Amino acid sequence: MNIIPYSPEYEKSWVYTKALSHLFSPFFDDMPREKEQMNTDIYQDQIDLIAVECDQVVGLLTINIFHKTISQSYRYYPADKVAYFENLAVHPDYQNQGIASQLFEEAERQLKAKEVDALAIFTRDGASANHLYQKWGGQLIAQDYLVVGNLKTEEPFTFEVLSDEGRLRFSRNGQEIPYYQREGIYVVSKEEDIDLFDIEAVYHEKTYIKTYENSEVE
To answer: 37, 92, 97, 103: which is deepest, by most CB within 10 A?
Structure first.
């Protein structure tokens, strides 16, 4: 197995590996049909690595580096150069073989060479991922909850079909409303406030920061 920079001929294999890795994980809803392109309005640089076995991607890791102005105003950890942990996935048939750590070891070498001050990692509950981020030196700085559902105190909406206008009419308390939120996703700061909702699902999100001494790798 080799750790190499990503190149476009591996896109299909990259997408398969990410999808299969996330399918039974807390990130089951993050399954793109093509590889995301770096947003150059936000990021100035990228570390984009893949682990390849028999010409197939079996692991991947992507870290983006914010522009300086965005880094300096980054609320989680303002600094001159902040990196964002975009993707980490290992094909299910190759998990528990140290591939994620090998990818991160190379990525971290490059982060230090690029004089990155801090790496921000956002994740959800999941023992394996959280164990890795803690093992790699990430410090848990914040938690929140994604709640899929509806506020218990919110009045229900009704709708009718306006066939003469070819549209639906939504209303609440007898007043027409321009839209309604179906299975809304709410970001909740404190765990006890989850009780405010009729819940479909809850995702516990965690934010880690790993800091670096700003120096070149020898």
So the answer is: 103
- Looking at the fold, whether 195 and 92 belong to one and the same domain comes out as no
Order the strands of the 175-177 sheet from edge to edge.
158-162, 167-172, 175-177
Q: Which residues, 6+ apart, have CB-to-CB distance to 175 below 8 Å?
A: none
Span 1-14, pLDDT tens digits: 999 999 999 999 99
Domain interval for residue 156: 146-201
| 208 within a domain of the structure (yes/no) | no
| pLDDT, tens digit (0-9, with 9 covering 90-100), for 54-107 | 999 999 999 999 999 999 999 999 999 999 999 999 999 999 999 999 999 999
Residues 75 and 6: beta-carbon distance below 8 Å: no
Residue 216, domain member (yes or no): no
Instruction: Provide the whole-model pTM.
Output: 0.84
For residues 136 and 119, what is the distance between their CA atoms, to the nearest angstrom? Answer: 11
